[in-house]
Amino acid sequence: MNFLTAVKNHRERERSVGLRVTGSEIGRVGSGARRGEDLITKAVQKITLSPSRDISFDKLVLSQSNVRRIKAGVSVEELAEDIARRGLLQSLSVRPVLAADGTETGKFEIPAGSRRFQALFLLVKQKRLAKTTPIPCIVRDAASDILAEDDSLAENMQRVALHPLDQFRAFVALRDKGQSDAEIAAAFFVTPQIVKQRLKLASVAPALLEVYAEDGMTLEQLMAFAVNPEHARQVQVWDVIHSSWNKEPFQIRRMLTETSVRASDRRAVFAGVEAYEAAGGTMLHDLFQGDDGGWLEDPALLDRLVAEKLQAEAETVAVEGWKWIEVALDLPYGYSHGLRSVNRRAKLTHLGGL
Hints:
Blueprint: H1 3-17, H2 26-43, E1 52-56, E2 60-62, H3 76-86, E3 92-98, E4 104-112, H4 114-125, E5 134-139, H5 148-157, H6 164-176, H7 181-187, H8 192-202, H9 206-213, H10 219-225, H11 231-241, H12 249-256, E6 261-262, H13 266-271, H14 273-278, E7 283-284, E8 295-296, H15 299-318
Parallel strand pairs: 2-4, 3-5
Antiparallel strand pairs: 1-5, 3-4, 6-8, 7-8
């Protein structure tokens, strides 16, 4: 190896390890870096968007390139009513229709936005919209390299559905701004019951809503938590079950109502739910499945009402001449031992058995 080869190898090793820059080279490096930046800037191509314009409805036609063939989602009739109420929220994507010789015919086909067009057509057919009404459109160049099918597919595939929680919160915002459940239901073509359900879901503890937003909880589980409005109890139950093997909705409902009494309980039936509520008792209701009338949240109040009604019944029976009458919410095991019916007409009635 000669001296020149050794120097060359040494310099190559320096380049492999790092870059050495002397004071006299700083300017050259800096100017070179600026030239590189200029080249990168020149390499970035400016994006040109398709222009938008209003086109008379009678100049628009459906495109055979639209990839949507199967009906799904909101019906055309409902979409037409929504457009009639609030106007067209999204422009149509159109392309000039060309004649055989390649010249524009003055018509425009719609590869993206066929359902909106069909809804507009229905409004025109119903004479609620003039056929010369200007329709906002995005006009693709007829010579574009992007296929019509490409546009149609992209519009349908790249849209992101609204997360259910965003919808729940939007309903709350509408209600907070003065809209009634019936008005919200009419605007979005759902029943008032569905509006109530979604508002109920939005009222679940914020911590649990965040868990749901991050896909840490199913919608069915969230529905189960809505049975009890107490946020602290909801969070407490989630803390217990989130790492458990049993996170079924029925288990969540059971834990959230375990201190309550079902409306089908014999005590509730005897005292009456109406009397319980009139006395200030509160109820739990499940808006998402049958709850047999709900749950009574105050068992102590219910027991007092049952005892009072039993006593009133005892006083009514006492006038028949019984020597003694005892009332109780429950009778102990074997309470009937040694007792017998006096006769068929005056059969002993145990009021505590309900």
